[in-house]
Write a structure and sequence with these properties.
This protein is α+β, with helices and mostly antiparallel strands. It has one domain: 2-Layer Sandwich (Alpha-Beta Plaits). Helix content is 20%, strand content 32%. It is built from two helices and six strands; from the N terminus they run βαββββαβ. The chain has a four-stranded antiparallel beta sheet, with helices on one face. The chain binds adenosine-5'-triphosphate and magnesium ion. Magnesium ion binds next to loops.
Length: 112
């Protein structure tokens, strides 16, 4: 199993959820986060004063899935979240050690 973590534009969340539904991916966690990539390091000024770098609002979507689904999910994220401009976000993929469904005590693939 793997965990896919995608940092996306907030405006793309609804499109992404619909696209994931189309490929039968239902389980996910979405959080409001703040972040920056390479571009947001310019100095910003507020009332004439230089202020520290701003973090932009983003949405983090986490999906745990079977190994075989990873590439399909990555393409689905790219197809629904890409504008081709800076700030489209990033996808991080992690190997996942254990999954346990609390209600049934099922583990692993059966718990997804
Ligand atoms: N190295 C990183 N580590 C953790 N989070 C990151 C990293 N780079 C980007 N992010 C997250 O992804 C969000 C979007 O990043 P962004 O798409 O601007 O990346 P980028 O490297 O600047 O690429 P781009 O040229 O497409 O803008 C950031 O706001 C941050 O939340
Ligand atoms: Mg950027």
């Amino acid at each position: 199993m793997q965990k896919i973590e995608a940092i996306i534009r907030p405006s793309k969340l609804e499109d992404l959820k619909a696209a994931l539904e189309n490929i039968q991916i239902r389980g996910m966690t979405a959080s409001e986060v703040k972040g920056r990539g390479l571009q947001n390091n310019q100095k910003q000024y507020y009332r004439g004063r230089e202020v520290s770098v701003d973090l932009n609002p983003k949405i983090k979507v986490e999906i745990v899935c079977h190994d075989e689904s990873v590439e399909n999910i990555i393409s689905t994220i790219i197809n629904s979240c890409r504008t081709g401009k800076h700030g489209d976000g990033k996808i991080f993929v992690y190997p996942l050690e254990r999954v346990i469904r609390i209600s049934t005590r099922e583990e692993g693939a059966a718990a997804l």
